[in-house]
Amino acid sequence: MAPQISPSILSADFARLAEEAKAVEGADWLHVDVMDNHFVPNLTLGVPVVESLARATDTPLDCHLMIEAPDRWAPQYVEAGAGSVTFHVEAATAPVRLAREIRAKGARASMALRPATPIEPYEDLLPELDMLLIMTVEPGFGGQAFLDIMLPKIRRTRELISKHGLELWLQVDGGVSASTIEQCADAGADVFVAGSAVYGASDPAEAVRALRKQAEAATSRASWLHDH
Length: 228
Description:
Belongs to the ribulose-phosphate 3-epimerase family. The chain is an alpha/beta fold.
């Protein structure tokens, strides 16, 4: 699969969300960070804003739920118009049931892991998912520095995906920029969430194109693509 770029509106101007969504219409997804001030120490937005965004842009919404009780709330984000819904495995009570419910409602089901959460215990869950998100910062705030100690985890996850022959997207989120995206692609990621690197640029649409170009170049050289 060609690399995909998902700009994070956490770094956008919240007073101008519709315009900020339009500013990156060449992106594959619009990444929407939902935080509840319980699972993470920050409060952002919820279902009504997602509903409004879904009406304001043609770019599909990639909702990342950094919230407690995702089993209860995640299905509402599909109904609000999200094309992909990510829940944190650390917060989910029944991740397989939840993934199946998200899929049944018509969205892509994705599971996220915090930096300290290993992938190996969840190997058997991978066929239930459309995407796996490896956090490359601690969730909760934008603008953090990329944790390069996550690169081996990305590699191990890519190996598990290949081992099972899955069509599973591997997303990275946190500190992804022109200086880190190639490392992520080389390690096996193919969906890249970028906040400050896109919305901090003078031309967000051009930033998306430049990041995609870098990711494509790094992917074409990556050993994980050629070993399988």
